[in-house]
Amino acid sequence: MIEENRRVLLGMSGGTDSSVAAMRLLEGGYEVTGITFRFYELNDSTEYLEDARSLAERLGIRHITYDARDVFRKQIIEYFVQEYMEGRTPVPCTLCNNCLKWPLLAKVADEMGIFYIATGHYVQKVELEGTYYITHAADPDKDQSFFLWGLKQDILRRILLPMGNITKVEARVWAAERGFQKVATKKDSIGVCFCPMDYRSFLKEWLARNGQLRSENVSCWSEMVRRGRFVDEKGNFIGWHEGYPFYTIGQRRGLGIHLNRPVFVKEIYPEKNEVVLSSLSALEKTEMQLKDWNLVNPQKILGYNDVIVKIRYRKQENHCTVTVTPDNLLHIQLHEPLTAIAAGQAAAFYRDGLLLGGGIIVNAR
Ligand SMILES: Nc1ncnc2c1ncn2[C@@H]1O[C@H](COP(=O)(O)OP(=O)(O)OP(=O)(O)O)[C@@H](O)[C@H]1O
């Protein structure tokens, strides 16, 4: 095992946050190496690489590039498409952070004999009685803790988070004051890096190019995307939809049908290419089951009734009680009903401001 040292491997995306993170680590006395992963290049643009490289050069730190495009495509993009094709709602950023970005940082750091790993994430870390936890960022608007519930102690103990205790506005000022105008004025990235805000156009294009891929038990994907029936809860026909993968549980806008009452997507049936619409109250659920879960410290969460659960980055918090089922899923008893719970999405737990874990929603009722 690598011993603690003052060396840190920082993920540099070329954006404002990781650039300021590099400066803050340097000023904190760390010996910084920057690494830029090639995950996905929109329109084959490598400007982000150039930006990261030239910043590293100006700061006088070592910079390396790591080509992760194949693994990103398989682990993140194909998973993303497959989830929609199977009627679920994927969480690519959560998966990328927990299963790809941080583990890759740790792996490369290990190879280089570097103890610390860092990013420009807006989260903080605390140690309590020998256990490390992620906590909220000082900037509530930027808090990214929701995405990091899957990290375990082997990673948490090595993490440095230089952006956790400042706001985004302060980060821009920090860069500007030091003469890094380009860093200070870069646009914020929004949404999923490989997909435009409307995922439907991405999906259509991807399927047109790669639709011959199959799920285990279904026919060719591209053939599965075709006009289908919107039905009510009793199965009565309401109208036509453009293909079930283009809808998500809880969706109201963009259904393309006009009734004299608000309707929401309640269920998606890929095998029948059917989408069930209902009133919002029919979407209320009080229980969920999670797979692929992680609990940072089970003793701080199991059996407590003041646990907070979040199912969306910006969604309001809800109270719950968490237990482990005999078949090793997490059972979440919600104290107030939640609407728009979709299989495939993540749920993250908090208590006393600590991120205590999370998992992937299998079902809800
Ligand atoms: N391609 C990449 N290579 C290396 N590290 C990355 C890469 N993309 C993101 N990261 C790291 O993960 C952090 C969070 O990334 P994310 O895209 O969620 O945030 P961001 O707010 O856009 O960050 P930034 O302003 O640094 O681009 C970044 O600050 C950076 O440290």
TrEMBL record:
One Pfam family named in its UniProt record: tRNA_Me_trans_C
Disulfide bonds: C96-C193
MF-aspect GO terms: ATP binding; tRNA binding; tRNA-uridine 2-sulfurtransferase activity
Enzyme Commission code(s) on record: 2.8.1.13
InterPro entries, per database record: MnmA-like (IPR004506), MnmA-like_C (IPR046885), MnmA-like_central (IPR046884), MnmA-like_central_sf (IPR023382), Rossmann-like_a/b/a_fold (IPR014729)
Catalytically driven reaction(s): S-sulfanyl-L-cysteinyl-[protein] + uridine(34) in tRNA + AH2 + ATP = 2-thiouridine(34) in tRNA + L-cysteinyl-[protein] + A + AMP + diphosphate + H(+)
GO annotation, biological process: tRNA wobble position uridine thiolation
tRNA-specific 2-thiouridylase MnmA-like central domain: residues covered: 226-278
CDD domains the UniProt entry points to: MnmA_TRMU-like (cd01998)
Binding site for ATP: G11, M12, S13, G14, G15, T16, D17, S18, F37, G120
Active site: C96, C193
Site (Interaction with tRNA): H121, Q345
Entry keyword Transcription: no
Keyword Transmembrane: no
A GO CC term assigned to this protein in UniProt: cytoplasm
Ranges where the record places region Interaction with tRNA: 142-144, 312-313
Family: Belongs to the MnmA/TRMU family.
Name under which the protein is recorded: tRNA-specific 2-thiouridylase MnmA
Organism expressing this protein natively: Bacteroides finegoldii
